Amino acid sequence: MGRLVLISNRVADLSKASQAGGMAVALADTLRTRGGLWLGWSGKIGDRRDEQRTDPDFTKYGNATVATLPLSAREHEAYYVGYSNNVLWPVFHDRLDIAQFEAGYYQRYLEVNKRFARALHPLLRPDDTIWVHDYHMIPLGMELRALGVTNPIGFFLHIPVPPAQTFLAIPEHRELARGLAAYDLIGLQTKVDVGNLIDYLQDGVFGRILQDGRIRAFDRELSIAAFPVAIDVDAFVGSRPNRTAKKLPATRIIGVDRLDYTKGLPQKFRAFSRFLEKYPDYRGKVLLSQIAPPTRETVTAYADIRQELETLSGRINGRFGELDWVPIQYIHRSTPRKLLVDVYRNSRVGFVTPLRDGMNLVAKEYVAAQDPDDPGVLILSRFAGAAEQLQEALIVNPYDIEEMADSLKKALDMDLTERRERHDALLSDIRRNDTYTWCRSFLDSLESTSRSAPLAVPTSPSEAARRALQEIEMARVAPRARHQ
Ligand code: GDG
Hints:
It is built from 15 helices and 16 strands.
């Protein structure tokens, strides 16, 4: 078995990855066992000279090496803030209304991908398996192919795929599709995402489904499948019970979300407010703790959502609060993970309400952290990828405030037998599909896909055009030959 080579916008700190509890644990373990390399942005923003850099800084962790490159200020502005976070993130989350299709963003996004490909190319070995992560890096596989790389290359998208009509609105959708077609395997979070991408490739760029289920597009054949991202269950199970519960004046409903407009936070606050209005007996007895650490603060839409939440929580606390009870605890800071696990366990309801989400690991973490003898209830938006799997949660429509308010009541009133039944079913699913299974099944599929389908190389558009011309030429010559 060859090495694993990972590429993503940010790299994990391999000395701490084992404490993260998410997919970084499995990736870091696989890197250590097989040996390998993880390339990404260092997080540093430098000057224009950095745009020429293809010599990464290396840190070794035994068998595994982390390689990082800085971005220049204008690369950061156009590749990261611009194209990744102001175009791809909103569009892929169905928010065409806030996408900023500025001229120039895509070009620099592509150039950063080219630079990362050039930096990686000399470090590759013939038997490496290459795994590219997320929307910042869509063209990376295509750029590696253009440099002559024939290794298996897989791509995993952590965010949702929008419906075909929304994808088509991206001015550079064809270029993105050409980038996607360079991979041997594309991993997505859900079956809905797989359906959306196949629809788009068929409608938008004349992709064809082959008999063996693969897709032919841009003169390449690729596989697309769902690999729902998962957690390291044991990192959340068995935390000390009730360490913080004693200090609580009320039954807790917990929300943990990066402060992002996709997470449905205003809808969550409004539903809680409606719940207090509709069911006044719960006033003074229940509180909503919302942990919402800051993220991408340089993007305008994030400043707007922050202001909206501060106003809403202030208004709700002002309306319902008492001298000895504040209904919403809104914490706009990151919380240490150990504490997070305790808080999950000591909360009667996990309230997860994104308007659109690739998966949502918080939903899985909340379930894993519960005391199986006295578990809490998960309320989960139908628009989180996790809802495809976690059917025993109370599934809600985050746009339906009334339904969410009623679900809060149902969750708080649920008897122990039903809570246990639902929790048992959820936990066994989360255990069956943990982060190690996710990592292994993606890599196994990638390696077997590329074994069964040797790569047609190279795949640049000019090569495809050359071959098409050759075929036309052959067709022209053939009838003449028959008449001679
Ligand atoms: C993207 C996709 C997909 C949050 N606040 C704190 C904290 N967290 C941790 C949670 C969880 C993680 O961050 C958030 O993961 P999510 O899955 O909920 O969401 P995104 O960050 O949007 O992630 C998403 C994911 O990629 C993986 O593929 O599921 O759909 O959008 O692990 O626990 N951790 C600590 N303090 C906090 O305050 N320690």
